[in-house]
Amino acid sequence: MRDDNHTPVLCLASASPRRQALLASIGVPVSVLPSDIDETPLEAESPTAYVERLAVAKAQAAVGKTALPVLGSDTAVVIDSTILGKPNNQQHAAEMLRMLSGRTHQVLTAVAVSGPLGILSCCVATDVTMRELTAKEIACYWLTGEPADKAGGYAIQGLAAIFIEQIQGSHSAVVGLPLFETTRLLRQQGVPVWAGRYPS
Ligand SMILES: Cc1cn([C@H]2C[C@H](O)[C@@H](COP(=O)(O)OP(=O)(O)OP(=O)(O)O)O2)c(=O)[nH]c1=O
Q1: Is the pTM of this model over 0.80?
Q2: Residue 144 sits in a domain of what CATH number?
Q3: Which cofactor does it need (predicted)?
Q4: Which of 74, 80, 127, 149 is catalytic?
C-alpha cells in the first residue's frame, strides 16, 4: 500500500526527473533544489572518485538552503577508462554509441546524503553489455529525443532497452539512483523510506 502523505522528507539536489520518480517509487517524497556545479573531471581523477566527488558537491551545494537532509547523485558511463557524460549534440551522441556498440561498459552512479552524520556517500558500478548497433539505429535513435540528457547517450529504461543484451549490477543505478544502497544511506541519516502504512 502506498503512503498518502506527500510532505517532503528529503531535498533532492538534482534536476533529474528519473531520480525524483525513483525516490517516489520507494515512498520518499522530496522537494527539489537542483545544484549547478562544474562537472569537469580533475586531472588524473579516477571515474569512481569523479562521480563520488560530484555527488557530494551536488549535495553540499544545497545544504544550508534547506532544513531537510539532502541527496546528491551523479551517473557516468565508463569505457576504456574514458568517462562519458551527457552528449553535447547528435554527432557526440553517435560517437558515444559507436564506442559502446558490441561491448560491455560500466555505469557508475554515486549517491551522497547529508544529515546528522554529516555527508555519507557510496558509488555503485554496473556492467552493461550492448549488442552491436547499426549506423541506421544510431542515427535514428537520436531522433527519439532520449539520448540528449543521458550519460553515455542512451536510456536503458527507454527504447535503448532493445540494445541492451545484459546487465550485471543495479538497474536503478543505471537509471540514476541505486535504490538498495540509497535506502541504506537514507535510513542511516534518519530519513524514512517506505514509512507509510503497512498492510495489516
Ligand atoms: C546510462 C543512463 C543514464 N541515465 C541518466 C541518469 C542521469 O539523470 C543522467 C546522467 O546525468 P547526471 O549528471 O548524473 O544527472 P542529471 O544531469 O540528469 O541531473 P543532476 O546533475 O541535476 O542530478 O543520465 C538514464 O536515465 N538512463 C541510462 O540508461
Answers
A1: yes
A2: 3.90.950.10
A3: a divalent metal cation
A4: 74
User: What gap in Å lies between CA 120 and CA 68, rounded to an integer?
Assistant: 15
- Could you tell which of 75, 171, 172 is best to mutate to test the pocket of ligand 1, judged by most ligand atoms within 8 Å of the CB? 75
> Would the ipTM clear 0.85, i.e. be above it?
yes
For residue 194, being part of any structural domain is answered with no
Instruction: Please check whether residue 62 lies inside any domain of the structure.
Output: yes
Q: What b/e readout covers 28-41, taking b as 16+ CB neighbours within 10 angstroms? A: bbbebbebeeebeb
DSSP state of 191: -
* CA torsion through residues 41, 178, 60, 58, sign: positive
Question: How far apart are the C-alpha atoms of 57 and 39, rounded to whole Å?
Answer: 10
Q: What is the pLDDT of residues 105-128, one digit of tens each?
A: 999 999 999 999 999 999 999 999
CA of 135 to the centre of ligand 1 (A): 24
Structural domain includes residue 196: no
Residue 3 catalytic?
A: no
- Is 137 exposed, middle or buried (CB count within 10 Å of its CB: 0-12, 13-18, 19+)? middle
Cell of 183: 535506502
How much distance in Å is there from the Cα of 199 to the middle of ligand 1? 34
Q: Is residue 193 part of a domain?
A: no
